Each structure stands twice: as structure tokens, then as C-alpha cells.
Model the fold of this input.
Amino acid sequence: MWWKFSSDMAMAAFEAQRVIALRFVKLAQGGPAAQQEAQKMVSEKIMASTEAAMALASGSSPESVVRRYRTIMRANEKRLSKRS
Done:
């Protein structure tokens, strides 16, 4: 079980780096789309951390929180890749 969790955490780190790179490209382009992405990024961070804290406080496993984060990151990667 710890091996699966470790693997999921490693994959989450790689996926996060990909999303960060795509966001940097978007932000570097400037303009209204960059402003919108910056606002989206900040609001997503607040919502994700709140969701994770509530899930853990209500007894969800850390594994389920990582799965949820990975789902969000994959959706962001897909969205940002289309626009880049």
C-alpha cells in the first residue's frame, strides 16, 4: 500500500510540473487570457486546499486526496495544452 501511495505522489509531482510549465507559458503571453489564468490558478489553489482539508478532517484517506488532486491536474493539463 505504501508503494502505491509513493508512486501516486511521484506521479502527482511530475503532473504538477507539467501544469506549472504550461501555466508559465500562458502567463508569459500576457493579456486578458493570462490575467484570467492567474485568477483561476489562485482560486483553484484555495478551493483545492479547502477541499483537501475538509476531506481529511472528515476521515478520507490521504490516498483519496492525492487521487483528487491528480484528477484536477490532468484536467488542467488537458485544458492548457489545447490553448497553448
Q: What stands out?
A: The helical segments are 2-29, 31-57, 62-83.
